[in-house]
Amino acid sequence: MTQNRNTQTSFVNEEIDLAELFRVLQSKWKLILIALVLFSIGGYLISNLLPNQYATKTTILIEEDQQNDPLSKLQGIESIDLFGGLTSDFLQNEIEILKSRRIIGNVVDSLNLNVSYLNNDALVNTPIYSGDMPFTVKATQVRPLISGEVPTVNIQLNEDGTTFILKSDDGEKTYDLNTKIPLAFCNITVVPNYFYIENDAGESDNYEVTITDRESVIDHLLKNIRATIIENSSVITIAMESTSPKLSEDILNSMVVFYNKNAIKNKNAISLNTARFIEKRLKIISQELDSVETNKVDFKSVNKLTDITFQAEKFVENISETKKKELETLTKIELVKSIVQELQTNSNSLIPTNIGIENEDINLIINEYNTMVLEKERLLESSTEKNPVVVDLNAKINKIKFNIIESLKMYTSSLNILLQDVRAQESVLSNRVTEIPQQEKDYRFIERQQNIKEALYLYLLRKREEVSVVMSSQASMARTLDVAYTPTKPIFPNKILFTAGAGFVGMFLVFAYYFLLLFLKNKIETKEDLENIVGDIPILGELPNLKDADQKIIGNDDRSIMAEALRVVRSNLTFLYIKKENTKAATKILVTSSVKGEGKTLTAINLATILSNANKKTLLLGIDLRNPQVSNYLKGVEGVHLKHQGLVEYLKVNGEKDISKITAYKCKNDYLDIILSGQIPPNPAELLMDRAALNEFFSQVENEYDYIILDSAPLMLVADSLELSPHVDMTICMVRSNHTKIQDLKSVLNLCREGKIKNPTFLLNNVEMKYIKYGYEYTQPS
Questions:
Q1: 361 and 403 share one domain
Q2: Which member of 43, 132, 486, 558 lies 3.0 to 4.6 Å from 56 by CB, making a disulfide possible if both were Cys?
Q3: Which residue windows are coiled coil (predicted)?
Q4: What average pLDDT does this structure show over 360-379?
């Protein structure tokens, strides 16, 4: 009974066979060990040649301005809350100020960071900090550099300690120290480090000096410096990495210094504006006071007044309280007018606070206005007027400014009403003392004006001194908790990690090499390769690769390796295909391949021979009508008698056909007959499509034999083998090791999946002996 096999199995497996990869790597353990050792040594050497990188950091505490602002302690001037609470947004803003181009630019200028040094005589060219150099190069008028341009010069101090050798594109020249030298890209001055020279006498090493433009250095530092906020605190950590611990420490410490200077300058902004306002008002009041005093002198001189009469003293006593109120009111009106005038003439300037306005609401609006003006000035330090935040802030400032002016006008109106009331009371009293001469009245008016101007003048003088005290006592914005510190252990390179990583890379390269060999393999090599692709389609066995041509065709009682392999195939055939009960028809086996050159003809001959050696009546049928090869293999073989006629001549005969005329035979093997294909016909496909003729042929021979082996044409070249599929019981598809392409094999499998090949099996041919997992103990002795 025929065993029908499912050919719909998923046979495509393009994944790498990990077991095979492991087997290959296991055989290459010595190479892997060598790669591990060599790469580890290389990694260790490289880690010692690379310059060490160190991590430096400093921590600062941002002070809360409200608690330390001296303005808040001055009588008559309230503190202005510039920053509010220390929120995360505020601290983030301070980080941006710390890392602003202005602060970093100040650091670059102060430390001369646009000039870098390398020691050409050292084993490893590690950058050197200027503080460790025997000289310092000052570069001025550095022109903008073209992208990729790195201007360098070589400098070496002479033994005399007063001259040096300069090597540049213009050649080698000797110059005196502290001399300005014009170069193509800048002017340089070489300044000696006398302390270094005195402690290291003799000719110095040869140093390579690189001049970089200021903006490029700033960009580099901005990328390297990191600032982070410690959670739930007002502490900021600033860190950077460098090959020179001293350089990175100086950079971070300088950043904090310049940040504090910038903060103090910003905090002095209100004080400076207040001082300017006071100075301006003092100048005006001084002129007005001089004018009033001059009028007083003139009035006394013209009217010959020397003393106040008794009546006038009595009047002053009665109306002193009224005069006091009038004086206070006039002073307030004058102050309000000056502030309104200042607001109308100076756009967005700061307003002095608490200089006599007794209205809490107006003072609160003025404080809010000053805070917004200061915030705008801080934003403009790192942005422009077109910044959306600045535009929005301008709108708010103008709105508040309008509200202040309107409030001051309303306040002035209330003061005027109050003044009218006071003067009304004064008028009543004056009417009651009509006996006082007109001159005395005029004199009092002049004196009153003098008192107003004098009181205002003295008040402004006192405030000017207070502002000066504030400006000289401003505290730093940031308090340093830890000065810049660099641990002695470098963060890079990690010698252990470098050594282990290099060893891993060495092993990985070996793994990758053999992985790619397997991944890029496009031909079947071993039985495992074939099994991974064909899935559950049976594989009959493996035929070894024999280099001796004489051993290709086996003989009777053959004990060669090939014969033993074919006996395994014969056993597997018997297991895979069982004849139907009560039938004497021969088992017809079609031997084919995907393309030419896979050994199907030789295998068909040897398979027929090994079956006949088991006393199985076997017919070898050469049915490759386009490229017949059976006769070529059998020519000259002892005991083989071939006939010129073959299957083609049989199929062409119209009428009664005689099998005996086309059958060849081996005289030494009574169980094997051979029928060749005959002459190559012009229409082989049409002959094979004649099923009636083929059926007649097989009906004449199938009861005479146990097996009929058909040597057919390759599947991928012509359709002849597919035409024969209905006439056979099973098909052997030959696969040649290191010859059959995986893509060709997949094409054959597609035919199997489509049911065009009947009961397919595979046989691997030409396998290297090292890949065959079983041996042959019973071989013919030589």
A1: yes
A2: 486
A3: none
A4: 82
CA distance 205 to 211: 19
- The answer to whether position 97 is within a domain reads no
The predicted pLDDT at position 273 comes to: 81
Orientation of helix 269-303 relative to helix 438-472, angle to 10°: 160
The confidence score (pLDDT) of residue 526 equals: 85
Nearest one of 581, 579, 585 to 700, comparing CA atoms = 585
Asked whether the beta carbons of 133 and 193 are under 8 A apart, the reply is yes
Check whether 699 has a pLDDT greater than 50.
yes
Q: Are residues 700 and 638 both part of a single domain?
A: yes
Q: Identify the DSSP state of 755.
A: T
Q: Where are the alpha helices (DSSP H) in 381-537?
A: 388-432, 438-472, 495-519, 527-534
* More confident site: 464 or 508: 508
Residue 77 within a domain: no
Query: In this model, does residue 23 exceed pLDDT 80?
Result: no
Q: Rounded to an integer, what distance in angstroms lies between the CA atom of residue 307 and that of residue 268?
A: 50
- CATH number reported for the structural domain that contains residue 664 in this entry: 3.40.50.300
User: Based on the structure, what is the number of domains in the chain?
Assistant: 4
Please give the backbone phi and psi of residue 410, each rounded to the nearest 5 degrees, phi first: -65, -40
Q: In the structure, what pLDDT confidence band is assigned to residue 253 with cuts at 50, 70 and 90? A: very high
Domain identity same for 312 and 419: yes
DSSP secondary structure code for residue 70 in this structure: G
Range of the domain at 499: 18-50+493-519
Cα gap 7→104, rounded to integer Å: 75
Tokens representing 90?
A: 């505020």
- Asked if residue 151 and residue 33 are part of one domain, the reply reads no
Which residues have CB under 8 Å from 31's CB, separation 6+?
510
Amino acid code (one letter) for 522:
N
| pLDDT score of 362 more than 60 | yes
Of the candidates 570, 636, 580, the one whose C-alpha atom is nearest the C-alpha of residue 608 is 570
The reply to whether 676 falls in a domain is yes
Instruction: Tell me the per-residue pLDDT of 113-150, one tens digit each, with 9 for 90 and over.
Output: 888 888 877 666 777 887 778 888 888 887 766 666 67
Query: Do 744 and 645 fall into the same domain?
Result: yes
Q: Judge whether 645 and 653 are in contact, CB under 8 Å.
A: no
Sheet with 54-62, strands from edge to edge, namely 226-229, 235-242, 54-62, 478-485
Here the tokens at position 321 are 């309280």
Regarding whether 346 and 447 lie in a shared domain, the answer is: yes
Residue 84: per-residue pLDDT: 43
Per-residue pLDDT, averaged over 496-519, amounts to 88
Q: Phi, psi (5° rounding) for residue 760?
A: -75, 145
Q: Mean pLDDT over residues 369-383, rounded?
A: 81
